[in-house]
Amino acid sequence: MAKKLLDFQDVLKKELKDKEFKKLYEEEGRRLALGYKIAKIRQKRGLTQKELAKEIHTSQATVARLEGGNYLGYSLRTLEKVALATGTHLEVQFR
After folding, report:
1. I need a labelling partner for 3 at 20 to 30 A (CA). Which of 11, 18, 86, 93 fits?
2. Sign of the alpha-carbon dihedral angle for 34, 35, 40, 43
3. Which SS3 state, helix, strand or coil, does residue 52 take?
4. Whole-angstrom Cα distance, residue 81 to residue 2?
5. What average pLDDT does range 4-31 have in this prediction?
6. Are 82 and 45 in contact (CB under 8 A)?
7. Could you give the C-alpha distances from 69 to 36, 64, 66, 73, 77, in angstroms and in order?
8. 35-67 burial, b if ≥16 CB within 10 A, otherwise e?
9. pLDDT mean over 39-52
């Protein structure tokens, strides 16, 4: 009898039962979501990374890091600059 191959969703479902894995998975998801959101807002406003960098007085490489999923150094001031440069509203919440 052939063994059924598991797909990603099956493996993820199993792994999410582990509380530590679930916590890390959710933290990573939040980081990815923030970078993705910055990139989408920038693109929606028709800005390149270089143009946004100029608006917030930083480098294109810094904007690329902000949009990447591995960046952990977000400061409230930088996020405020991004919001101002893109004509959006920054909202920080505790739940």
Report:
1. 18
2. positive
3. helix
4. 56
5. 88
6. no
7. 8, 10, 8, 11, 19
8. beebbebbeeeebebeebbebbebeeebbebbb
9. 97
pTM (2 decimals)? 0.75
pLDDT of residue 48: 98
What tokens were used for 13? 């479902």
Residue 32, Ramachandran bin (φ over 0: left; ψ between -120 and 50: alpha; else beta): alpha
Q: Where do runs of H (alpha helix) occur along the chain? A: 8-15, 19-44, 49-55, 60-67, 76-86
Q: To which residue do tokens 């199993």 refer? A: 14
Average pLDDT over residues 2-6: 68
